[in-house]
Design goal:
- The relative contact order is 0.15.
- This protein starts with a helix and ends in a 5-residue tail after the last strand.
- The protein has a two-stranded antiparallel sheet. A two-stranded antiparallel sheet has the order 3-4. Strands 5-6 form a two-stranded antiparallel sheet.
- It has one helix at 5-30, and strands spanning 41-48, 58-64, 74-76, 85-87, 97-100, 104-107.
- Strand 5 and strand 6 (104-107) form a beta hairpin.
- By secondary structure, it is an alpha+beta fold.
C-alpha cells in the first residue's frame, strides 16, 4: 500500500461528493419546465474527470444561454467541517476554436 493511498482515497471521495452535489443541482434544474427563452440554461450530461492530488475536474454540457451570462459557482469543504470554502468557478465555453498548425482543429461545445 502506498503512503499516498489515504490522500488519493480522500480526493476520490471529494470528487464523488462534489459530483453528487452537482448531480443534485442538475436534477433540480432538469425538473424545471422547458426554457422560456434561448437565454435559459438547460443542463445536460455531467462528466467527472479522474481526480489528481491537487484538482477535481468536471465537464458539464448545457443547452441555451445564448447571451452567455450563465455561471457556475463552486465551493467545497473537508469531511467533518461545516464551513464551505469558495473555489474557482467553472469556465464557460461555447464555440471557441482551438487551432494549432493544422495538427489540432477543435471547436468547443456549449459547456462549463
Amino acid at each position: 500500500m502506498s503512503r499516498f493511498a489515504p490522500v488519493r482515497s480522500g480526493i476520490a471521495l471529494a470528487a464523488t461528493l462534489a459530483a453528487v452535489s452537482l448531480i443534485f443541482c442538475v436534477a433540480g434544474l432538469a425538473r424545471a419546465q422547458a426554457p422560456a427563452s434561448a437565454d435559459t440554461v438547460v443542463p445536460g450530461e455531467l462528466l467527472v474527470e479522474p481526480p489528481t492530488l491537487i484538482n477535481l475536474g468536471f465537464e458539464w454540457f448545457v443547452q441555451g444561454d445564448e447571451n452567455r451570462n450563465a455561471s457556475v459557482a463552486v465551493s467545497y469543504r473537508s469531511r467533518g467541517e461545516s464551513a464551505w470554502k469558495p473555489a474557482l468557478p467553472l469556465l464557460r465555453l461555447r464555440g471557441e476554436r482551438i487551432f494549432s498548425e493544422s495538427r489540432v482543429d477543435v471547436v468547443a461545445p456549449n459547456m462549463f
